[in-house]
Amino acid sequence: MSQRLTPLWAGARDSLPMLVGAAPFGVIFGTLAIATGIPAWATLALSALVFAGSSQFVAVSLIGSGAALPVIWLTTFVVNLRHALYSATLLPYARHLPARWRWSLAFWLTDETFAVVEHRLRQQGNESDGAWYWLGSSLAMYGNWQLWTIIGVLLGQSVPGLADLGLDFAMVATFAAIVAPQLKKRPVLVAALLAGVVALLARELPFKLGLMLAALAGVAGGVLAERLATSSKPEMKETT
Amino acid sequence: MSLQLLLTIAGMVVVTYGIRLSFLVFGHKLSFPAWLSRALHYVPAAVLTALIVPMALAPQGAIDLSPGNAYLPGTLAAAAVALFSRHTLAAIVSGFVVYGLWRWLV
Q1: B51/A49 Cβ within 8 A
Q2: What residues of chain A lie within 8 A of the CB of B57, using their CB?
Q3: Among the four residues A96, A135, A168, A239, which has the most C-beta atoms within 10 Å?
Q4: Which UniProt keywords apply (chain B) (predicted)?
C-alpha cells in the first residue's frame, strides 16, 4: 500500500506551489459568481464538474451578460482547447494504463497538473508508480479548487451587495493581471491589440458574438505576426 | 433560469471533458496538427483581452474615457503592476486599490 501512497503523496506535494497559486482564484471565482447572481449550486457545480478555472471565469462573465448558450459552449471550447495538447503530450505515459485510469486522469487534467506531471515523467521516465504520482497531483488540485470555491461562495453569500462594491471590477483586474506579462512578446501583443479593438467595435452584437469574433481575429493576428517575424529575421530564430 | 444554467453547465462539461479525453482515450485515432498548437498559443491573450477592453473602456455600454470611469485607471494599474512585478495577486490588489480610490475621490 505504501508503494502507492508514496508516489500519490509526492504528486500532491510537488503540486503545492500550484495549490497556493490557485487558492485566491478559487475564492475570487466563488465570490464573483454569487455576486453575479449565479446560485450557489451552479457555482459549486462549475468547479466540481467543469473544473477548468479560466473557462469558469469567462462563463460567469458571459452568463452575467446574458450570452447565448452556443456562445458560452463555443467560448469554453476555445478557452479549453489547449488541454487537447496536454492530453496528446501525456498520452505516451498513459498508453499502458487501463481505460478507467485514462478516463479518470483525463477528467482532472489541468494546466497545473500537466506542468507537474509532465516535468516528472520526462525527468524520471515512466515508472510503474507514475500513474499514482499523476493521481496525487490531480486529487490535490481538485480538492483544493473545491475548497476555495466553497469559501468564495460563503464569502459572497455573507457579504450581500458585493457587486455594488465593484466586485465586477475584480474580473477585469484578474484578467488584466494574467494577460499583461504575456504582452512583452510582439506577436502576443498583436493578438491582444486586435482582439481588444474588435471586441470594442463588436460589443453591441447580440449574444456576445463579438467575443468569438474578437478571439478569432486576435489568434489569426498573432499567428500572422509570428510568421512575419520569423520570416523577416531568420537570424533571430537561432538565438532564441 | 435554472434550466438555462443546467444546460450551460452540462454543455461546458461535455466540451471540456471531451477535449481532455481526446488523446488520452482516443489517441490512436487522432493527430494534433502543428498549426493548431501554434494558434492555441494566442488564445488566452486574445480571449482575455477581448473580455477586458469593452469592460474597461465602455463599462456602461458607450465608450467612456471621462474621469468618471474608474474601470480604466484600475485596469491600467493592474496591468502595469503585473507587467513589472510579474506578481499576479499584487497586481489584482493594486488594481482594486486604484479603482476604489478613484471612485471615492473622483
Answers
A1: no
A2: 200
A3: A135
A4: Membrane, Transmembrane, Transmembrane helix
Helix ranges, chain A (H): 2-14, 16-36, 40-45, 53-64, 69-80, 82-94, 99-107, 111-124, 130-158, 168-179, 186-201, 209-232, 234-239
**CA gap A101, A128 in Å, rounded:** 13
A109 interfaces chain B, CB cutoff of 8 Å: yes
**Which residue type occupies A26?**
G
Whether the Cβ atoms of residue A199 and residue B51 lie closer than 8 Å to each other: yes
Model pLDDT, residue A1: 55
pLDDT at A237: 46
pLDDT digits (tens, 9 = 90+) for A173-205: 888 988 899 899 999 999 999 999 999 999 888
| C-alpha distance from residue A99 to each of A95, A96, A121, B67 (Å) | 9, 9, 20, 58
Task: Find the CB nearest A176 among B43, B75, B103.
Answer: B75
pLDDT at A170: 79
**What are the cell numbers at B80?**
502595469
- Is the pLDDT at B22 greater than 50? The verdict is yes
Contact B78, B52 (CB under 8 A): no
Torsion of CA A13, A19, A21, A26, to 10 degrees: 180
Q: Residue B42: which of A83, A171, A218 has the nearest Cβ? A: A218
Grid coordinates of B64: 467612456
pLDDT of residue A234: 55
